[in-house]
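Posting this for the archive.
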Amino acid sequence: MASRQEPAPHGVWAEHAAHRLAAAGYRRGGARAAVIALLDRQPCALTAVDIERDLRDDGRAVGRASVYRVLDELVSLGLVGRVEVGQGMARYEPARGEAHHHHHMVCERCGDVFPFEDEELERTIGRLAQRVAFDVAAHDIVLRGSCSGCRDQRAAAASAATT
């Protein structure tokens, strides 16, 4: 059954990201540090708008363009994964390695994203790779559908329409 792993202790990924950025020639900046610190505290993916809002709520005024620029830098260095959730929207989360690997379920009605892990799914991917002689370097699974709340709302609306 699906379970959830906790992220590494706060600061571990952020420190790694800061070192990688410095090695790649990026200067330390306030917006970059704020985005990295925020992402380091997240158990799952956020949109750029979520990041901008959360930073503003924390008293950090970081513009959306800066958030996108930092996210692009982090993605290009493999420090952040980009999760396409449909409707032209993407979410971003730290690439913490296999110890924190998970997949996502996306509600197509409300847009909520639910992380999940499934050992049987991972074994199945491994068996498939062996069967077709393909070396899988990485994989991302995004399941799309309806969360329980939206499913219940749709059922209630359908029931009300038939009465």
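The helical segments are 12-23, 30-40, 48-57, 64-76, 119-131, 148-162. The two ends are 38 Å apart (CA to CA).
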